[in-house]
Amino acid sequence: xxxxxxxxxxxxxxxxxxxxxxxxxxxxxxxxxxxxxxxxxxxxxxxxxxxxxxxxxxxxxxxxxxxxxxxxxxxxxxxxxxxxxxxxxxxxxxxxxxxxxxxxxxxxxxxxxxxxxxxxxxxxxxxxxxxxxxxxxxxxxxxxxxxxxxxxxxxxxxxxxxxxxxxxxxxxxxxxxxxxxxxxxxxxxxxxxxxxxxxxxxxxxxxxxxxxxxxxxxxxxxxxxxxxxxxxxxxxxxxxxxxxxxxxxxxxxxxxxxxxxxxxxxxxxxxxxxxxxxxxxxxxxxxxxxxxxxxxxxxxxxxxxxxxxxxxxxxxxxxxxxxxxxxxxxxxxxxxxxxxxxxxxxxxxxxxxxxxxxxxxxxxx
Length: 365
Fold this sequence. Notes:
Layout: E1 11-12, E2 15-23, E3 27-34, E4 43-48, H1 50-53, H2 56-70, E5 80-85, E6 91-96, E7 101-102, H3 103-110, H4 115-134, E8 137-138, E9 147-152, E10 155-160, E11 167-168, H5 191-194, H6 202-218, H7 228-237, H8 250-261, H9 273-284, H10 288-292, H11 301-306, H12 313-321, H13 340-364
Antiparallel strand pairs: 1-2, 2-3, 3-4, 4-6, 5-6, 7-9, 8-11, 9-10
Helix pairs in contact: 4-6, 4-9, 8-9
C-alpha cells in the first residue's frame, strides 16, 4: 500500500507526511521525513485510529509501547523514536521505516519456507525475545504478522514488531486490558494465555515462536479451526499433526523440538528462546561444530544452507526456492488486510471465549 491521496495531515510534530503505507488494528501508518533534516532517512508514523482514541486505555497502550520499545536497543526489534499527538489529541508513534513485508504475507504467497530460512528466522526472533525477556518484558502477541522481513542485499533481515501487548513480569501497576490486547492471537497464544492466566512469563512467547516455526515448515497453522472457540480448545487440548519433511531422520528430531516448544505446561518448555532455536537448528541438521565458530543468528541463509550437508539435492532445491530472495514462488492469493473494526470484533470474540473458558476451569476446580 502506498497511497499519497488520502493523507489526513500534512505534518505531524516535526515530520512531513508523504504517503500512507499500511494499516492495522491499532492504527494507520504513514511515511514521513523530518522537516528539519529532509535529507535524513524517512521514518514511519503510526497514528491510532480515531475511533480508538476516545478510550484512555488505548492511549496508555500507545504510551506503554513507546516506553518499552524505545528502551529496547536490539538489531531485531523495531526502533521507536518518539511519541506525539495530532491536533485532535490522537496519539502517534514515530518509528524506523522498514521496507519489505510481514512473514504472514510471505507465508500466504509461498505457503512454507525451507529449512535454512526457517532456522535463521527462528534464531533471530529468539535473540530478540531473549533480550526482551532479560528486561522483564513478555511480548504476548508473537505471530507471523509481527515478524517483518527486510531485504538486505541478497539476503534479508527481520524486526519483531508491536510491543503494545507487552507484559512486565511481576507487574504491579494497572493492567491495560483493552479489547484484543490481553490475549494475543488465538492460533499462536499459549495455553496459559488461552486460560486468561496472569502468571505469564517468557515461555509463553517460546510457545508462540514454536507455532510460527511449525507453520513456516509445514505450510499450515499449528492450531486451526472454523471458530475462535475451536482454535482455543485445540491450543488447550491437542498437539499439531506431525511434520512430513523430506530427509529421513529429520522429521522425528524436528517434531521432538517443536512438541517441547508447544508443550501445554510451560514447565515442560524451553527456559530460553535461544535454547529452543539451537535445538531446532540441530534437529534440522546443523551440526554443533558449525555453531562453534559463528553465532547462529548472524549466519545468512546461504551459510546455513552450506552447513546442512545432509540435505538431499531435491530438498536443498526446495529450500532454496523458499528463501526470501532467490527462486520462484507458488501461486497463491494473498488475502486483503482486514479493517481495524473487523479485527477488533474478532479479537473481542477471543476475549469472550477466553473468559468463558476461565469460568469453566474455575468451576471445575
